[in-house]
Amino acid sequence: MDSITILGYLAATLTTVAFVPQVTKIWYSRSAKDISFAMFLVFSLGVLCWLMYGLMIGSGPMIFANSITLILALSILAMKLKFK
Questions:
Q1: How many CA atoms lie within 13 A of 6 on its CB side?
Q2: By C-alpha distance, which of 76, 41, 42, 69 is closest to 54?
Q3: Backbone angles phi and psi of 75, in degrees to 5
Q4: Cα–Cα–Cα angle for 2, 62, 8, nearest 5°?
Q5: Residue 18: phi, psi to the nearest 5?
Q6: What is the pLDDT of residue 38?
Q7: Short-list 81, 72, 78, 76, CA closest to 26
Q8: What is the structure's pLDDT at 12?
Q9: Alpha carbon 69 to chain centroid distance?
């Protein structure tokens, strides 16, 4: 694996892991009142586009990061709806 791919995976991991504390906080507090539904909806659509782009160009780091980030972002949206 070359250094550019390693950097891509590092960036992908860090930006994806950044969502874990928010998901955890919402889950344990059972509150998402301060989360913007519109922002996470638009963000999720953007991440879906990045995932599709990554699949089209065959970029492992993009596919890895955006698959997990999409799951986390959609989890936040689901909890926003569930924990009104």
A1: 3
A2: 69
A3: -65, -40
A4: 35
A5: -60, -25
A6: 95
A7: 76
A8: 87
A9: 2
| Residues 62 and 54: beta-carbon distance below 8 Å | yes
Note the pLDDT tens digit of each residue in 14-52: 999 999 999 999 999 999 999 999 999 999 999 999 999
Q: How far apart are CA 48 and CA 75, in angstroms?
A: 14
pTM of the prediction? 0.86
Q: How far apart are CA 73 and CA 71, in angstroms?
A: 6
pLDDT at residue 84, as a whole number: 78
Phi-psi group of 59: left, alpha or beta (phi > 0 → left; psi -120 to 50 → alpha; rest → beta): beta
Q: Which domains does the chain have, with CATH numbers?
A: 3-82 (1.20.1280.290)
